[in-house]
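User: Predict the complex with pyridoxal-5'-phosphate.
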Amino acid sequence: MTSTAIPAAARVNARPYLHGTEADALTAALHAGQYGHGPITEEFERAVAAYLGVDDVVAVESGTAALHLALLAAGIGAGDEVVVPSMTFCASVQAITAAGARPRFAEIDPDTLCVSADSVLEALTEDTRAVMPVLYGGRAVDLTQAAPVLAERGITVIEDAAQAFGSRHGDRKVGAYGVQGTLTCFSFGPIKSLTCGQGGAVVPRTPEEAERVRLLRMLGIRQSQADRIRTTTYSVDRTGWRYPMSALNAAIGLAQLARFARIEAARPRLWRTYRDALAEVEGVVLVDVDVERSVPFNCVVRVPDRDTVFATLHAQGIGVGVHYPPNHLQPAFAPWHRPLPVTEQVAQEIMSLPFHPEMTEQDVSVVVNALRQAVAR
Ligand SMILES: *Cc1c(COP(=O)(O)O)cnc(C)c1O
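Assistant: Here is the predicted structure with pyridoxal-5'-phosphate placed in the model:
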């Protein structure tokens, strides 16, 4: 029995990373006194747009809200089907059901845990109106091969890029595809690469689409917050949701974005350290995140007898996780179940290793040594 102390950074699978400037930014926003959508939220929107190199970004209260509103803005609703991988956080699927649409679960490539052009094409039906690729682990999903068919059938691509802020697709940032492209949604939740505490964003394709998302996120009220306080009435133009990003969350996000270059360097470095250490470990397969172009969200391996390996590492205080139990097997989504053999197999094997920008090479080797021993048993 080895008695190597488990470093604190390896005890949890994922936790927020603070740069140290967030508390002052939050305090200033508290004193500014406007806690709902406000000028700080709009400053955050402009800063994210500038970072991505796009004209506009609409901030909302969560990644789930971003997906929900992107679907609605694209005209997806009752009777429509949305192709989505089963291997994702349940929020992707709940956003589809919240929009009144039906999920159509797609298979994944076991090497990347992402959908492929082929698996998307296989899943299409007459009712498919949208495809929601999930950028698992921060990896961009290339649907170029499917694009002609999707365009011909009027199918919108709405990316769940919750884990992919800062990643690139070819030489462009995820989200920066231009007017003809994809609708992209980000999350700025607690453990995402950039956190607002809670938050999300939609990258709209046109000014009209941006306006639609802004109307939907603010209860369908046409006037801006600033205009409303100057007039005696307001106009509720359509059904809407209460999904604004609080100025308090935006203040945290602005502080994080100013230092994001550190994260852009640290996360790929950590992933590569794991890759190199894991290369020697027999029986362990690393899920590829395309590290040359990605800001990795996590480090996921496939191991034999996963439940035993998981329990062994967990008992040693190592913060392993499983992302995710497949959605097509969840009770809430039973009506849309269909057999997905690759997903079901991979779901028995995947395990996420502790992944935090503060982890050192030494921390990684403690985790990998423990993994090696657990797998060899
Ligand atoms: C985090 C996450 C979401 C949801 O984002 P929230 O901000 O937590 O609502 C959706 N999809 C994926 C793949 C995620 O990782």
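DSSP finds 13 helices and twelve strands in the chain.
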